[in-house]
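Collaborator request log, item 7. Partner lab (contact: R.S.) asked for a structural prediction of TOG domain-containing protein to inform their binding assays.
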Amino acid sequence: MASSIDIANDEAPPVDATIDYIPSHQLTPLSDPDSHIQGLIEGLESKDWIKLCESLNDTRRLALYHSTLLIPFIEPVMVVMVKAIKNPRSALCKTSIMTAADIFTVYRDKLLEPTISAAFDNLLLQLLLKSSQDKRFVCEEADKTLNSMVQSITPLPLLQKLQIYASHNNPKVRAKAAIYLSNSVSRMNLEELQEFGLVSLVQAAAKLLNDRLPEAREAARSTIMSVYKLYPEDEDQKQESWQNFCESNLPALHGQSIIKITTSH
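Returned to partner:
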């Protein structure tokens, strides 16, 4: 189904037959990918938003079917995607968010390499912002893309990125970051948790337990339970050792809150 959004009325977007929101599985390979890659950046820099959407969909096709051709352009492509997500025209924003999902699925940990890490950070922040806004169809697309990110990228380095935003000034961003942080933690083994740092992870979760939004508090509880399940002690000694761990590394009230969560399950 074809649809797009008129910038003049974001609350009740009219249908416009010029933009297709194409699911990834319906995208097809490009017949001449080499010629598309040569004109890709020019298309992505277009002032014509319809042409830009078309170029973003070409980017998705290149990623899915001709991934090696796109690798040298990943950093400038992500810079364009961030600008498009910020754009008040919702059709452009959503198309860029869908592009991000395919980029995450294909390139995975390559996106964390030092040369493009800053572009990834900016993209992650914009996705968290969009997933926490009130415009439902954009919010839902951003959530789907963030879930793709969590499933595609190795949890440990991703957790290091998400931890920054779990203390963001915007409470909605904090809550969303807490949710995806919790999802990442649930995919980790004990060795990975220890490499990240059990103390810093539990301290971050403890702060979120008192957050303003219930989503952040629930994500914090989920994170704590994931850590507790993997906590390295025999079951007979686990509770006592865990209690000592919490009391040694947290303020008294935080420690008591975490102990209460783990003993009630």
